[in-house]
Amino acid sequence: MENIYLLMIVALAVLAVADLVVGVSNDAVNFLNSAIGSKAISFRTIMIVASIGIFVGAVFSSGMMEVARKGIFVPEQFMFNEIMIIFMAVMITDILLLDFFNTLGMPTSTTVSIVFELLGAAVVMALIKVSTSETETLADISKYINSDKALMIISGILLSVVIAFTIGAIVQYVSRLIFSFHYNEKMKKFGFLFGGLALTAITYFIFMKGLKGTPYYKDLKGLLEGNELLIIAGSFVVWSLFSYVYMNIIKKNILVLVIIIGTFGLALAFSGNDLVNFIGVPMAAYHSYEAWTASGMDASAYSMGALSEKVPTEPLLLFIAGAIMVLTLWFSKKAKRVTETEIGLSRQDEGQEKFQPNLLSRTIVRSATKASQAISHMLPEKIRVKIEKQFEKPVINIRKDKDYELPAFDMIRASVNLMIAGVLISIATSLKLPLSTTYVTFMVAMGSSLADRAWGRESAVYRVAGVFNVIGGWFFTAFSAFVAAATMAYIIYIGGPAAIAILLFFAVVLLVRNYVNYKKASKEIKAEDSLKRSESSSIQGVIEESADNIATVAKRSNKIFSSAITGLSKEDLKELKKCKKGIAKLSAEVDELRDSIFYFIKNLDESSVGASNFYISAVGYLQDMTQSLEYIGKTNYKHVNNNHKKLKFNQIKDLLEIQKQITDLFDKIETTFNDRSFENIEQILDNEKGLLENVSEKIQKQVSRTRTEESSPKNTTLYFGLLMETKDLINAVMDLLELYYKEHDSSVPAPKLEEVNEDK
């Protein structure tokens, strides 16, 4: 039996490594976003600063494993075999849950997940013990669970969300009123005070939160505790003087230093305090195993009171954990995806939105807009004009297709985000209030975005919907962590070692599957056949650049149309579902091209109006094509999914004949545009005029069949709809070809396009 528990310890050690990887991938959002979004320093420098913070925080962390050991349940009430079931259930659940959120690109709280997993697994084990006891009832569960601690954590979560958002919004609003978006001149006058305030808040946060879990904090405890106000005042004076010298003598931007130190501080605190979320449970399991083997007692008879004692973590293990976390930060693609979610929701400019609006976001935005207008009308005209002037954004003459070169927000907002997050976490730490660093940093960023008017009329419904999606995910984390860990614990209790082996295998399969699917999705995003925006300001330049787009649309439209007709003829629902996804992706990309028309036109000079007309017309024809394909794909899927009658043999034969002709047409278009042989367009137009006539003949044949032999209204409606949309599709293709044929001038040499380095 001892060998079984030894194997469980080994399995938990492996799970701890995996949990470190998925945990860092999710929590990287806490300390990277402000620096990445502001682009105050290079991405490489950001990673180096964060890596140092993570490693230092991990190596000097100790004595911070109490949540896993006794924070949620009462260890004396559980036997060794029961504790091992709890720990194994928690670790399997934690890895799967965090990897799920990472794959979605949604930031969640590793603290909340581990707490509710411990709570769920412990509650199930307590229920099992109560049910097998002759003397205990459900009322006795309270002696197994530290319910007061759990309630404190839940209340801390709710309070941190509201407080962080509110204070972040207020401080950012005041900061913008003082410095405005044109803050260079104001920074010369008052920047040393802002720098002093920000650096004081961040360094105080490093000591109060980042170093509180270290073995060195006890040496500083007497100096720090009770003298907080004096330390803060002294720090403000010192840092303000330093900022003045740094700006006026060294001639450097103090905001850059604020962002560097703030990033280091948050990384240090994350590693030093959240490390418990990843290795706390395996370490508690290891110490439990040591105590049990030393006792010589049976696993079901040995009470785990030993977990109540404070046991420091081995330095070598902390060193290894720090190294794994740093490597994950550098190499995890999912970490970058999670950071993109918050930056996307807080960026200052408009662009492609990740989330779709819903009723709640529309209602809130509409109400907030009316309230804002009412308050604005109540203010005196002079004050209103002055406020508006402070929020005037600088005009940056740069093409929208190069928005990756621009920061998502400026250094004022980045500094406020880091400063307020640090202050709130420090205050909560000093008051011993539980909270999630993820929740605080995210909500501060959202509050400052709102105050900075990043959520304008063009983007507010999308951004608000995104915030609610993330917050909803947090509550889902708590609920799913509790239920999943409870279920895992029960399965392990019933199935024993066999159940553990099956669950571990299941976890590995899911992790591998998620990784493969993520890699596949990433490749699709970076695929060569994705559509690209035009940069040229001349018609010939746009023709040359957009030729690859047309070839791509022809290739993908060919595949979509063929799948739609083949799937309908074979009643293959899987094929039709794949077709729907393909057209949805193509349609979204064409819509993005349409959305870029504004920025394309803004980039043109007065002599290039013809290029804008050409670009608008081309995008319009592409939209017509995707709309026809979308109708065909959705209608076919709906028909088969509803189990309606299959089309008759003659109808399928006619559709397959048209499909072959459409395939030939798209193949010719793809070859022509890939080779830039635009002179062949005339021949394509001449040869394919018969295709429209063929479709018209098929429509007439169906009219005759309907009058004499057709008996299914659904089939008739479907068939007519397909033929009419196919006709519209062909017309859109022909119009597009005619546009390129008329506007292309072979006497003008193809422009040499500069390669754009998109390496962020």
Automatic annotation (TrEMBL):
Keywords: Membrane, Phosphate transport, Transmembrane, Transmembrane helix, Transport. It is found in: Membrane. The chain crosses the membrane at residues 6-29, 41-63, 83-101, 113-130, 150-178, 190-209, 229-247, 254-272, 316-332, 411-431, 467-492, 498-516. InterPro entries: Phos_transporter. It is a multi-pass membrane protein. Belongs to the inorganic phosphate transporter (PiT) (TC 2.A.20) family. This is Phosphate transporter. It comes from Zhouia spongiae.
